[in-house]
Write a structure and sequence with these properties.
heterodimer, A: alpha/beta, Rossmann fold, 4-stranded antiparallel β-sheet, 11 helices, 33% helix, globular, B: 326 residues, alpha/beta, 2 domains, 8-stranded mixed β-sheet, 10 helices
Chain lengths: 315, 326
Amino acid sequence: MHADHSITTDPLLQIEDLSTFFYTPTGIIKAVRNLSMVLHAGQTTALVGESGCGKSMTALSILGLVPKPGRIVDGHIWFDKRDLTLLAPEQLRRVRGNQIAMIFQDPMTALNPVFSIGTQIEEVLLLHQGLSKKQARVKAAQLLHQVGMPNPQERLDSFPHQLSGGMRQRATIAMALACDPQILIADEPTTALDVTIQAQIMHLLRSQQRQRQMGLLLISHDLGVVAQHADQIALMYAGMIVEQADTFSIFDRPHHPYTRHLLSCISADSATPISTAAPHSQAQWPPHFRPRTSELPPMLEVDTGHWVRAWEVSA
Amino acid sequence: MNTLLRLNNVSKSFSLRSRAPGSKCQTIRAVSQVSLCVYRGEVLGLVGESGCGKSTLGKLATRLLTVDSGSIFFDSVDITHLSARLMRPLRRKIQMVFQDPFSSLNPRMRVHDILAEPFIIHRINPADIRAKIGQNLRAVGLDAADAQRYPHEFSGGQRQRIGIARALSLHPELIIADEPVSALDLSVQAQIIALLHDLKREFSLTYVFISHDLSVVRRICTRVAVMYLGQIVETSPTQDIFEKPLHPYTEMLLQALPVADPHKRKEYVPGPDIPSALSHPGGCPFHPRCSYAIARCATEQPELSATGTMREVACHRYRELHLCGL
């Protein structure tokens, strides 16, 4: 849909061979392994996978927020001609929330319950844009208006618990958009919401994205949301991208057995449950995947821009 | 058709008392005047947005909550006001599976003790319990040896299997499952749904499947009841409701559902949020959000009336409207 115009331009964000490991007393957990992907202005790339597959850790790696004992052990994250993995904490702080913003699944935990939402949005503006208190308040009301909050002026003084789930998510989006970010990372932004509210919030995100030409990194396990809204899809499994292509190729011509399996889970009749849940990345691969060897299979290009992690590609 | 559970004009409200001085006591009408039949052998989906009263309805049907008015019949017996003692033999026949497999299992009890509880309460011969627990665990795809472990040693999907094993213990006829798969990953969801299917066949069960996820409901349910602000607005066989909804609210839910097919993208944006259950609008409860509302809808409440085969709808205009399905 929007896939044509951007391929020629330079990507906003380019991740090369990113690996994020956790060094725990019981061993190394490879949360993200050799992950490469790009994000273009005005485009939506979806990171899809089940819990524990490393999609949120990828997002936190971009923002330099990987919790201890985890750290980025390898790779580059190119943004604005700089490698984010090499920035000092102070430099990174200026990027985070300013040029790259993030919204989370549960707006109730993302918002501070003891401050009004106006105060929380103004804080971002005071910190990053150096506005005066008065200017910040005016801008905060404008932002609430832009995200479709009714009576924005009065809502500035509301506390998170006084808002419904959908309105809270609107408030966090307003906060994320406060500094006109070039990249918005949305980690399961609608999972906690009803379908009707989900449709509203996704519509809001898409319209703001179009207006601002933001790159949207959409993290989701919902294949419906992804099919409706993503331009590119990267499927993750046990810390790795197993298949990566534009949305239509993934749904029309899935190659990797895991992609095929996930797609079979959503069709009414052909669901073929696998015998185990998504494994720990150190664990064995489920039996009907190829027996595990010590090395990772390479990413093979099966079609222009359609990559699959596999030893061989069957027709 | 053989009716297993029948709700007759059931209502339930909760009062919200605020501690602020001078504030009034407010009443939430969680379920109002609901009549619903569950037929033996079916999988009835109960859908609606959060706060529409679907979980309350499930709890009323199991007598975990007591109705304010109306009556409940299970297998033609009026259970509305049965005493706890008389209710006990019936409780074996109605069981619940809960949404969150993390909070519905006691973390301090071994799986064996969790699964033994129903047998102890219902005074089953203690000598048989161990064997029965083993059988139940195998029926839900776990191992008899898992009985010695604690809930935290299991994944979400496995815990939900334990919850299902507990519900199955006493050979129930009706299982009310309140969002049993919404906390689970896609592939684990598929496993649990397959398990529920198999168990239904094996133990000839009837399910009431409470969910806000229409794509899951479509896969497992034979019939769907749609709830809005404490009332049922439409009931239909699953295929009919997805292909040709009769109530504008059902259409809204279907149109908001993201379809996992990039070739079917839609630019539909639903109207305003669900109003608070504190303030019921007059007339049809859905009229403030309904794009087909006419003057009559604001003043006169439509009755749930039968139409066609196995279908009921509460809308003044359902005959003239041609709504879109999926």
